[in-house]
Design goal:
Elements: E1 19-24, E2 30-35, E3 40-45, E4 50-56, E5 61-66, E6 72-77, E7 82-87, E8 92-98, E9 103-108, E10 114-119, E11 124-129, E12 134-140, E13 145-150, E14 156-161, E15 166-171, E16 176-182, E17 187-192, E18 198-203, E19 212-217, E20 222-228, E21 233-238, E22 245-249, E23 254-259, E24 264-270
Antiparallel strand pairs: 1-2, 2-3, 3-4, 5-6, 6-7, 7-8, 9-10, 10-11, 11-12, 13-14, 14-15, 15-16, 17-18, 18-19, 19-20, 21-22, 22-23, 23-24
């Protein structure tokens, strides 16, 4: 855990084996970490900086996302071909839902009624109804889909296809791909700005030198800028104001801090070994504000 102002280490919290993804609850009180090698999710109390629970899920949990109301956390189990729904109050798995082959990335709709899962070995996206707790649609995308981002308006889903060097843009009203955007090699992560106007894609660029970030015009569905980051970037997070992007560079042990509006790197900071994912804290809504006490 790092302070992004001065980049001092705030806390180093041990979690499970091979942590792969992180999801911060909207109120900022708890961070859920998927442990790919441990078949579990660690729940971190962010104010006291300690693990308060370990939840057993499926095999090789990877992508992880929190419901907008903070009531549930959804985990894609890469090795089990399932998604686990964790009840935040009880810290237990409430439901296990079969999806496609090797689910990797996961995203939740703004109103929480749908969950979208990228199936890396099936070139597909599974759409889950959170009320029925089952897959209600399967949509064909590119090769080796790795990550999912849902537009703030809830009308579009963006899927990064590592095997196709592209991003599929899906119109949910049609349940079909309406655009395929070329990006860099091995795109592994995608996020969308809060106004829905831009998408940002992390490209690993394996065997092609340093990684990169592609900026996509989310209205015209075309790339508008690309800039280099570190080696083998894997994770990405965006600030609440959309003015800063953080990219974890796995092989370098660093985080690149980017200015997306100017398409330049502000700074690069050393972190721990082999950083995989990034989670950025945000100011919570008034009804979800953290309780007093602990670190601000």
């Amino acid at each position: 855990m790092l302070d992004p102002v001065d980049w001092l280490l705030v806390a180093n919290v041990p979690v499970g084996k091979n942590p792969a993804g992180m999801a911060l609850l909207p109120n900022g009180r708890e961070l859920y970490v998927s442990n790919f090698g441990g078949g579990s999710v660690s729940v971190v109390d962010t104010q006291n900086e300690v693990v308060v629970a370990t939840v057993l899920v499926g095999m090789n949990p990877s992508g992880i996302a929190a419901a907008p109301d903070g009531s549930a956390v959804w985990v894609a189990n890469f090795g089990s071909n399932t998604v686990s729904r964790i009840d935040v109050h009880s810290k237990t798995v409430r439901d296990t839902i079969p999806v496609g082959s090797h689910p990797r990335g996961i995203g939740v709709s703004p109103n929480g009624d749908r969950v979208y899962v990228a199936n890396a070995s099936e070139q597909s996206l599974s759409e889950i109804s959170t009320e029925a707790n089952q897959v209600v649609a399967t949509i064909r995308v590119g090769q080796t889909p790795m990550s999912v981002a849902v537009a703030p308006a809830g009308d579009l889903v963006y899927v990064s296809n590592a095997g196709s060097a592209s991003v599929s843009v899906i119109a949910l009203a049609r349940h079909s791909v309406i655009a395929t955007v070329p990006v860099g090699a091995n795109p592994v992560a995608v996020v969308i700005s809060s106004d829905g106007n831009r998408a940002f894609v992390v490209n690993q660029n394996l065997l092609h030198g340093p990684g990169s970030v592609t900026v996509v015009d989310a209205k015209g569905f075309k790339p508008v800028a690309t800039f280099a980051v570190g080696n083998n970037p894997l994770g990405m997070g965006i600030s609440e104001e959309d003015d800063t992007i953080y990219v974890s560079n796995y092989l370098d042990g660093t985080v690149s801090v980017l200015d997306p509006r100017q398409a330049l790197i502000r700074s690069t900071h050393a972190v721990g070994l082999l950083p995989v994912a990034v989670a950025v804290s945000r100011k919570p809504p008034a009804d979800l504000a953290p309780e007093s006490g602990g670190r601000p």
